[in-house]
Write a structure and sequence with these properties.
184 residues, DNA-binding, mainly alpha, homodimer, 76% helix
Chain lengths: 184, 184
DNA sequence: CATTTCGCTCAACGGACGTTGACTCAACGA
DNA sequence: TCGTTGAGTCAACGTCCGTTGAGCGAAATG
């Protein structure tokens, strides 16, 4: 690896990380190329040169590998969801935060969010029994979404001041009630 | 009422409704004063003259009377939440949609959303037993938020293609499990 | 060492936006 | 009827932003 290529990759990475942080904190519209460039200690023109456009930079910043849902029984599935929630509470990747932050106001972020959520709904739907599994999977997914949004993006004190384990403990029976049909 | 005053109130109302619709559909940033003016068939300068600034117009557009939570036992509380969800599915007021649409990307909308949610959490927290009632109230609230966001703003097909009554039927035991402590 | 390559900067363009002040004209009050 | 008020318009200012093309200087290449 030549010195030039190495330097370039470092700079590119610095820009991308600055962009991820700003997109996650401010959303697409309020994040400016100039602010990203300043945070990365670089000229704004360089950001364009490396990533093409603001939209392309955003697409690259929100690209994130979706965590696969391992097949198993209902209880394992619920534990897996609660586990991903705990991970989210701690250090959800900036790319995911950036996608969620803009999903209500930026069309492309919305499309990306729908794709991620639909994928998760499909996977959960195939792991739980019942003919309305798809709808119940959608509810389980949006429930996790709501808790994550409230905790990570709205930063509600009522959730932040509580240990993650307590949240999981309260959420567990609720998710199981939805995952297993006809338990009323 | 003179003809002038009446005409003015009609115009002001037309502007406000156009603003609510655009804020609800596009969010704060993507909604322009010019677009609001065009939708209300009015000059952009008139919008400023009547509402002061874009921010003031937004504050006026998202101002909405919070539905009070009537005191009652746990079952009644859950039914009330599910009922408000069904109402939301049908015709949630544009002002509330506008607030939710921008709550992740606009600081003032975020503050407004936190206020509304905290109020609801407080009310629910006083209606359910247990020493961790506050945290469980917060989870119930964010759960409703997630389902509403998924249905109304992200417009997930998996939720839209299902009758509201079915959603309420599946959600009911989950909410009850959270509202009543130690039922595991 | 001479030449090319390329990471990076600088200055600027063009457009969109919020906002403003002067102006027009019909309704109002005396 | 005549002066006043106020609803509504018009043109423009200043700013911020995404984006571009020319240019500089150091590393790579022979």
């Amino acid at each position: 690896m030549t010195e030039r290529a190495e330097r370039r990759r470092r700079t590119e990475r610095r820009i991308l990380e600055a962009a991820r942080k700003l997109f996650a904190d401010l959303g697409f519209e309020r994040t400016t190329i100039r602010a990203v460039a300043k945070a990365a200690e670089v000229d704004p023109a360089l950001v364009m040169q490396y990533f093409g456009s603001k939209q392309d930079l955003f697409s690259e910043a929100v690209r994130v590998a979706p965590a696969p849902v391992a097949p198993g029984d209902t209880d394992e599935l619920v534990e897996q969801l609660l586990g991903s929630l705990c991970m989210k509470m701690g250090e959800l990747p900036q790319g995911s935060l950036a996608m969620m932050r803009s999903m209500l106001t930026h069309p492309e972020a919305a499309a990306s969010a729908r794709a991620v959520l639909s994928r998760q709904i499909h996977q959960i739907g195939e792991s739980i029994p019942g003919d309305d599994a798809r709808m119940r999977a959608a509810l389980m997914t949006t429930i996790m979404l709501g808790v994550t949004v409230g905790h990570q993006l709205l930063e509600l004190d009522e959730l932040r001041e509580v240990p993650q384990a307590d949240i999981a403990r309260v959420l567990r029976p609720a998710l199981k009630a939805i995952a297993s049909p006809r338990t009323e």
